[in-house]
Write a structure and sequence with these properties.
Order of helices and strands of chain A: EHHEHEHHHEHHEHEHEHEH
Distance between the termini of chain A: 27 Å
Oligomer: heterodimer
Protein name (chain B): Gfo/Idh/MocA family oxidoreductase
Pfam family, one (chain B): GFO_IDH_MocA_C3
CATH topology of the largest domain in chain B: Dihydrodipicolinate Reductase, domain 2
CATH architecture of the largest domain in chain B: 2-Layer Sandwich
CATH superfamily of chain A: NADP-dependent oxidoreductase domain
GO molecular function (chain B): nucleotide binding
Number of domains of chain B: 2
Structural class of chain B: alpha/beta
Order of helices and strands of chain B: EHEHEHEHEHEHEHEEEEEEEHHH
Distance between the termini of chain B: 46 Å
Number of helices of chain A: 12
Shape of chain B: globular
Shape of chain A: globular
Number of strands of chain B: 14
Strand order of the largest sheet of chain B: 8-9-10-7-11-12-13-14
CATH class of chain A: Alpha Beta
Structural class of chain A: alpha/beta
Radius of gyration of chain B: 20 Å
Number of helices of chain B: 10
Largest sheet of chain B: 8 strands, mixed
Number of domains of chain A: 1
Chain lengths: 294, 334
């Protein structure tokens, strides 16, 4: 994975600290062109991986990437699925079964579940696979070397202790897409333990990691302990804790941690992209120099 | 270990199950739901004991506490059944379909000395907790007006149908969305006791309202405006904002950001003029986080109350009943 991954929250009005900023962003990124322009600014700053949720808007972005194969020759997308609000809002209105009916392609209840409820249990894994395939459709022909499960689902399954389903995602992504499965979580130490128990070596895990411990469930110390003692490809997100930590200080902390393979961040302006990237380079070099010196 | 059972494994129920499953002091002993799709999943992958009959489950697994997350019209019957068997109850919101049912349950909980809590999770959101603290401290002086708003994209086209589209079962924007905002105002300002005027409007739904607009006042004579709309697709998810005006200042807060304007200098960590605080400064660490800290915090609080470590004073049946009362007043405008 690249050292820096470019995120997509800013494009979809996801702002963890301000609804007002969210609104401004959805105005700024109304057109696909505006999104592409920002992705291109990020590319100019050396960011060639776009980690994005399977939001409907990404369909248009994928079209642009597909239609300009030379320009995006080395470009990678890390899809994160599902876009949970779509399902959550539907579940409020239609219930769980209704939501499945609405979003799973084909007549699930007619085909998968025919023959009555007795066969139902066997088919959950097929259902999950169908849902993964539906979410992956928009990325056809695009390089997607890592595919993530969003934290809402990862963490839901952790709490439900449905480890088999986490592993079903893992296995399907490996087998069908020849890609590395990744997990986003708000409970990194718990997830690591589960993956380790299920025989996953060197897992890709993306979680909030920041100096103030924001959204680091359990404790910051528990996270640091995993980073220090376990083998994994860890991605740090929410490194600025929604703006609570000044960028320089935030990045100095992250670059000083062991075992962080990548840093994920998103920004709307070229200036913010460049400044975050330059802080990461600065503190990476500093770490390297210190390491060499000792 | 506290033995917990749950009835109603829908969106909220499954979310509670996950949080309970991750709680180190909870053992989930049973789940009751009528949907085979859900119970088969939970039996197979979560190794939970599932039932279709609530009473049978209670008698079989003998839980210390039960989570009730079924459609509102079943709340009264199931909560009563549980409390009759001396089981502590966490119920989803809104509390009951009418205030008579609620009164009976409040009395029963008091008589049996059972822990009772309703899932108005906004009270566990850091910014709203701080809003309440600021108001109680008198920092913004005498509160004279509020504007309480909530918007989100639940029903954005016609032709959808479930129990939420049936008013007699507790469906509609009033019961679902507006209840949250009313409950928040009741808590941070004072209980709303009068509805001066209201309009409940259908936008895409045929049978229920999609928006509630009202002019109201509280028992301390604070006037206010309620504006709630669940057919608002310019919002990504439910977004609740309260604006509180006082003689010495003003607060505008949502779940992420709290803005406080003070007319005068203050001794605390706020100063004259505008102050901004973010949820990042106001959130307490939780052990497990699914969809937001507040969902875990309310479950932790309930379990602590059952274990007699916390007082059972936040989101009691009594407080949720005050909200039901306002809903009843608003319903007259349907």
């Amino acid at each position: 994975m690249d050292r820096i991954l470019f995120g997509d929250n800013q494009f979809f009005a996801v702002n963890h600290i301000s609804d007002e900023k969210s609104r401004a962003q959805s105005i700024q990124f109304k057109s696909d062109n505006a999104i592409i322009k920002t992705l291109d600014s990020a590319r100019e700053a050396g960011l060639n991986t776009f980690m994005c949720t399977t939001h409907d808007r990404i369909i248009g972005i994928c079209d642009v990437i597909r239609n300009n194969p030379e320009k995006y020759e080395h470009y990678k997308i890390y899809p994160c699925m599902p876009y949970a609000h779509k399902y959550a809002n539907a579940a409020t209105e239609l219930g769980i079964a209704g939501t499945i009916k609405q979003y799973v392609p084909g007549n699930v209840f007619g085909s998968l579940f025919k023959g009555g409820m007795a066969v139902l249990t066997k088919d959950y894994i097929s259902l999950i696979e169908l849902m993964i395939d539906a979410e992956m459709k928009m990325f056809k022909g695009i390089n997607t070397p890592v595919i993530f499960l969003q934290n809402v689902i990862t963490d839901l399954l952790i709490g439900l202790r449905a480890e088999e389903i986490l592993m079903a995602f893992y296995n399907h992504v490996k087998k069908k897409y020849n890609a590395e499965p990744g997990f986003i979580t708000m409970c990194m130490p718990k997830l690591y333990e589960i993956l380790e128990r299920n025989g996953v070596e060197n897992p890709i895990i993306c979680s909030s990691i920041n100096k103030v411990g924001f959204r680091m469930s359990g404790s910051k110390e528990a996270y640091e302990e995993v980073l220090r003692t376990k083998r994994g490809r860890f991605i740090a997100m929410q490194v600025l804790a929604g703006g609570a930590i000044p960028p320089e200080e935030a990045i100095e902390y992250i670059c000083g941690l062991p075992n962080i393979e990548s840093i994920l961040f998103g920004a709307s302006s070229q200036r913010n992209i460049e400044s975050t990237v330059s802080y990461i380079h600065k503190f990476d070099e500093l770490q390297l120099t210190t390491a060499l010196a000792s | 270990m506290i033995k917990v059972a749950l009835v109603g494994a829908g969106k909220m129920g499954v979310s509670h199950l996950s949080i309970l499953g991750a709680h180190p002091e909870v053992e989930v002993v049973g789940v009751c739901d009528t949907s085979k799709i859900v119970t088969n999943f939970l039996e197979r992958y979560s190794k939970l004991n599932c039932y279709a009959d609530f009473e049978k489950m209670l008698d079989r697994v003998k839980p210390d506490a039960v989570f009730v997350a079924v459609p509102t019209k079943f709340h009264y019957k199931l909560i009563k059944m549980a409390m009759d068997k001396n089981i502590h109850v966490f119920a989803e919101k809104p509390f009951c379909l009418n205030t008579t049912e609620g009164e009976e349950l409040i009395a029963l909980a008091a008589k049996k000395q059972l822990i009772n809590q309703v899932g108005y999770h906004n009270k566990f959101v850091g910014t709203f907790k701080e809003v309440k603290r600021i108001i109680k401290s008198g920092m913004i002086g005498n509160v004279y007006h509020f504007v309480a708003e909530s918007y989100g994209p639940v029903v954005t086209k016609s032709k959808q149908s479930s129990w939420r589209s049936k008013p007699e079962e507790g469906g509609g924007c009033l019961m679902d969305y507006a209840s949250h905002v009313i409950d928040l105002v009741n808590d941070i300002v004072s209980p709303i006791t009068s509805v001066k005027g209201a309009t409940l409007e259908s936008i895409y739904s045929n049978t229920v309202e999609d928006a509630v607009y009202s002019v109201m006042s509280t028992n301390s004579n604070v006037s206010g405006i309620l504006s709630v709309n669940w057919s608002e697709e310019t919002y990504r998810k439910m977004s609740t904002t309260v604006t509180i005006l006082g003689s010495k200042g003003k607060i505008i807060s949502d779940a992420n950001e709290l803005k406080l304007y003070l007319k005068d200098e203050n001794k605390e960590d706020y100063t004259k003029g505008w102050n901004v605080k973010y949820i990042t400064d106001l959130t307490d660490q939780v052990n497990f986080n699914l969809r937001g800290e507040e969902y875990s915090a309310q479950v932790d609080y309930f379990i602590d109350a059952v274990m007699k470590r916390k007082p059972n004073t936040i989101n009691t049946f009594q407080q949720a009943w005050e909200t039901d009362k306002v809903i009843e007043l608003l319903k007259q405008h349907r």
